[in-house]
Amino acid sequence: MSEYKKTENPFAKLFISGGVTIFFEALGGGHYFEMVKILKQTTNNSYATITKRMIANKGIVGILDGFVPWGALQASIKGSSFGFGEAAAKRLLERIAPDSVPKWQREILSGGMGGFVQGIVMSPMLLLKTRVMTDPRFRTAGGFIQTSIHSMKLGGELIRTEGGLMSLTKEPKKKKKKGHGRVFVKRFADWTTRYGFVVLVEHGMRKQLGLSEKQKLSKTQEMVSSLAGGTLSALATVPIDVTVSLIQQASKKGQKVSVFEIYREQFRSGGLRGTLQLATRGLVARVTHVALTVLMMKNVSSWCYSFLVDFTVKK
Asked: What are the GO cellular component annotations (predicted)?
């Protein structure tokens, strides 16, 4: 069987990746780490303070603030769109350039294109989820059901007050976009660097183990490579991640926000040290979330795909 025919089916990968992502975000800590990261980036409170405020009024269920409905919807869209985009790009690259583009380059490019598709599709949900997480009213919205209802109301409020349904993809006339174009570029850069660093780590691991590029790594070795590559990528791209969170936070709604102005004001008030601190806010939470996300998207979703294919064939 040719390598092209072995390539994962984009539509099957869409559903599998979506399911894996929802499980990870809800039960694997993904939503918690992302929420802590965003709150750290937009408030600079300590991790202990952020977590304490999450659970102060609602108990442990408070860590799922914002997950229903926007977080769950975002998780589904995030995983499925990336899985589809990555598989479709990989299949296209293997079809049109099987020999001229090395396999490791196709791997990195397919990851980047998966991220680009993800950014286009999930940008509206990311805005809604960020607004929910950074809205001070949300901390006292009640239990899980009340929180979910408040989350839906907040989304409706955003649509009503900022230009109708199209406010989910752009700002009202004469106002700058809330980071949507940056989200596309950011997601492409995120996933290109993630896959690039994973490939780099895998290459180094093969070299240390005396394996050729055609020999497969064990599942444990693949896990280590993905976690290490995700960590390196998070360290490289954290400034732009902080910028997007600052632009989309609830306190900025309806305002014109300039990336240059954000960092210029910080430099004036805190100097170089303060600027660096701003650009690296939420680093620990981001590194943890990104490393686990790379593991989910690059390895776990593919393992699930292979398991289901093998199960179907055996039946």
From this structure: membrane; mitochondrion
* DSSP one-letter code for 105: H
Show the domain range for 125. Answer: 7-310
Dist CA 232 CA 230 (whole Å): 6
Does residue 1 sit within a domain?
A: no
* CATH at 302: 1.50.40.10
Asked if residue 161 is part of any domain, the answer here is: yes
Distance between CA atoms of 30 and 249, rounded to whole angstroms? 19
Q: Is residue 213 in some structural domain?
A: yes
- Domain membership flag for residue 268: yes
Structure token digits, residue 36: 């802590």
For the entire predicted model, the pTM comes to 0.76
Q: How far is CA 302 from the centre of its chain?
A: 18
The SS3 of residue 83 is helix
pLDDT tens by residue, 259-292: 677 778 878 888 888 888 888 888 999 999 999 9
Output the CA angle 241-246-249, nearest 5 degrees: 120
Cα–Cα distance, 294 to 113 (Å, whole number): 15
What is the total count of domains within the chain? 1
Distances from the Cα of 253 to the Cα of 130, 136, 302, angstroms: 11, 13, 39
Backbone angles phi, psi at 277, to 5 degrees: -65, -40
Structure tokens at 108: 């990195």
